[in-house]
Write a structure and sequence with these properties.
By secondary structure, the protein is mainly α. The protein contains 4 helices and no strands. The longest helix has 86 residues.
């Protein structure tokens, strides 16, 4: 009975060493020590215990290789996901930058429109006062017409800027829809 307990203790110690040292396990390196712990006999004197230990070591090598392969596959998937994310992030940064530029231009055009409308109001007020006084001054009429023309130009410019902002926002959506449609067509052809 003591031999069985002693053999169990040796096997437990050997399995502990295998569990902690499986990364550094090399064929032949340290295998004799494991066999000695399991069998209690130096230099692998016991054939059955040595064969069992070698089978266990081989099984552990196979498991270790499987885990390494799975780890390598996970690393590759992670790299692919990071690359996709980086590409999507760069694309989003470009879109945000383009939208900021469009909004800045739109703001500039709207400021120009407000200024032109203010000039038009002032010119019309001066023209009304001159007509109320019975004095028809041609330079006020010219000034009012110029202010009105500038107001029209500014309004058209602001509309064009708004259109550019809307188009800049729609372009990525349209490109994504086109890619999705092409993928769907490819899947239909393949299927």
């Amino acid at each position: 009975m003591t031999d069985i307990n002693e053999l169990q203790a040796r096997i437990a110690r050997a399995l502990d060493r295998i569990a902690t040292g499986v990364e550094g396990f090399e064929p032949g390196g340290g295998a004799d020590e494991v066999l000695d712990d399991i069998t209690g006999e130096p230099d692998g004197a016991s054939g059955t215990a040595a064969a069992d230990a070698e089978e266990e070591a081989q099984r552990l090598r196979v498991l270790l290789e499987d885990e390494r392969l799975a780890y390598a596959q996970l690393e590759e998937r992670l790299k692919t996901l990071r690359d996709r994310q980086d590409g999507a992030s760069a694309e989003l940064r470009e879109q945000v930058s383009a939208q900021r530029e469009g909004l800045a231009q739109l703001d500039s055009e709207l400021q120009r429109l407000r200024k032109a409308n203010q000039m038009l109001r002032e010119s019309n007020d001066a023209l009304r006062e001159a007509n109320a006084a019975g004095v028809g001054e041609p330079h006020l009429i010219n000034k009012a017409m110029l202010a009105e023309l500038e107001s029209i130009r500014a309004e058209r410019s602001s509309e064009a800027a708004e259109t550019r902002v809307v188009l800049a926002a729609l372009e990525p959506l349209l490109a994504e829809a086109a890619r999705g449609g092409a993928e769907a067509d490819a899947q239909e052809e393949a299927g």
